[in-house]
Write a structure and sequence with these properties.
With about 80 residues, this protein is mainly alpha-helical. Helices cover about 55% and strands about 0% of the residues. The chain has a domain of about 60 residues. It is globular, with a radius of gyration of 12 Å.
């Protein structure tokens, strides 16, 4: 869970999201701010845009989708993939 492997990073993000929701008593806006703050403290996520990553984690958890950390849109200053919606 503390490695730079994609499985470890996604597990960390999932746990962060769940704990933020629990600590903020299901307030989604406050939980996103709390999670973005935690991402700023974790050096493994320095290359990612915190707000985009938090939004994508929330979307994936609500839809049951798998998070793809290789998406260039999640990076700081990243642009979406060609032909993506």
């Amino acid at each position: 869970m503390f490695d730079h492997d994609q499985r470890d990073l996604t597990a960390t993000l999932s746990n962060m999201h769940r704990q933020a929701i629990d600590r903020c008593q299901s307030n989604q806006i406050e939980a996103k701010q709390k999670m973005a703050q935690w991402l700023g403290n974790d050096r493994r996520f320095d290359s990612y845009d915190a707000s985009r990553l938090v939004d994508r984690v929330a979307l994936c958890r609500s839809n049951g989708a798998q998070l793809d950390l290789s998406d260039p849109q999640l990076l700081r200053g990243g642009k979406p993939r060609p032909l993506s919606r």
